[in-house]
Design goal:
This protein has four helices and 13 strands. The protein has two domains: 31 residues, no CATH class; 214 residues, Immunoglobulin-like. Helix 2 packs antiparallel against helix 4 and helix 3 crosses helix 4. The protein is globular and about 75 Å long.
Length: 258
C-alpha cells in the first residue's frame, strides 16, 4: 500500500492509482507512471503476432491460458459426475473451505499439464506440442493408488470395450476389496478454428465408472465406450475407493490406450 512520508506534502512510496512512488539510492524520491501487466497470451494477441502487426505476445502465457481453459471446460462439463464425486469427496473429508472441487482439480493439474508440454514457449500444436494427458490427475485422495501403474489399456473398436489391466498389489492402506474406478479422456484437447485458430477447448471426458464392478484384487476391469473410436485419442485413468468409505479415493494413474 502506498504512503506519504517525512515532509508535509509527503514522500511518495508505493502505488497511487496510475503512478508509483519510490526512492533512488541517493535519497531522492520520485514518481513514475504505473505500468500495468500486458495480456501477452490472448487469442487476439496471437492473431496479431502471426499477422506481424504486433510483437507484444508470449506463447508461454498463451499455452498456460489454454491449459487453464481446457481444465475449466472439462471440469464444468463433468461437474456432477466427476468433480463433485471425486474432488468434492476430498474437499469434504479434509474440511477445505477455501477451494471448491473444481478449483482443487485445476490447482492440482495446471502446472502438471503445462510442464508436460515439450516446448511451452512455442505455438500449441496438437500433434507435436501439447500437454501429455497421462499427466492429468483424475482423482485425488488418501487411499493407496495403483503403485505400479496400469499394465495395459486396450480398446476394441468393434465392441467399444476398453479393458484395463493392472497388478492390483497394495502395500500401505489398500485392500483387496477396494473398488476400481476408471475414467477416459478423448482428444482433441483443443479445436483450432480458422486460418490462425481460436484454440477452443474440445477435450471430452467419459466420467468415472466402476465398469463391471471389479475390485483391486481382480487386476482388471472393463468399460464400455462408444464403438469406432480412435484408440490413439484415448487416455485411461484408474483409481480406487475403499469399500467401507472411510478413507475415500486414491490418486489416479494413467495409460495411453492402444
Amino acid at each position: 500500500m502506498a504512503k506519504l512520508r517525512n515532509n508535509p506534502l509527503g514522500d511518495p512510496m508505493g502505488k497511487f492509482g496510475n503512478v508509483v512512488g519510490s526512492k533512488w539510492k541517493n535519497g531522492f524520491y520520485y514518481i513514475k507512471s504505473r505500468v500495468f501487466p500486458a495480456q501477452r497470451g490472448t487469442i487476439a494477441g496471437v492473431k496479431k503476432f502471426l499477422a506481424h502487426t504486433s510483437r507484444i505476445f508470449s506463447y508461454k502465457q498463451m499455452n498456460n491460458r489454454n491449459v487453464m481453459r481446457m481444465l475449466g471446460y472439462i471440469g464444468r462439463m463433468n461437474l456432477e459426475t466427476w468433480i463433485d464425486v471425486v474432488f468434492g469427496d476430498y474437499i469434504t473429508r479434509h474440511g477445505i473451505t477455501s477451494l471448491s472441487g473444481l478449483n482443487l482439480m485445476v490447482k492440482n493439474n495446471q502446472s502438471r499439464l503445462f510442464n508436460s508440454m515439450p516446448n511451452a514457449d512455442q505455438i500449441w500444436n496438437a500433434a507435436t506440442n501439447a500437454p501429455d494427458l497421462t499427466d492429468l490427475l483424475a482423482s485425488k485422495g488418501d487411499l493407496e493408488p495403483e503403485t505400479e501403474g496400469i499394465t495395459s489399456a486396450t480398446y476394441n473398436v468393434g465392441t467399444g470395450d476398453l479393458v484395463i489391466v493392472f497388478p492390483g498389489d497394495h502395500y500401505t492402506n489398500g485392500l483387496d476389496t477396494d473398488e476400481s474406478y476408471a475414467m477416459v479422456a478423448k482428444k482433441p484437447i483443443l479445436e483450432s478454428v480458422g486460418a490462425t485458430g481460436t484454440w477452443e477447448p474440445k477435450l471430452f471426458v467419459y466420467p468415472p465408472s466402476r465398469g463391471n464392478t471389479k475390485t483391486r484384487v481382480d487386476g482388471t476391469m472393463t468399460l464400455t465406450l462408444p464403438k469406432g473410436l480412435t484408440p490413439a485419442d484415448l487416455t485411461a485413468y484408474l483409481f480406487f475407493k475403499d469399500a467401507a468409505g472411510t478413507i475415500g479415493f486414491s490418486d489416479s494413474v494413467a495409460k495411453q490406450v492402444v
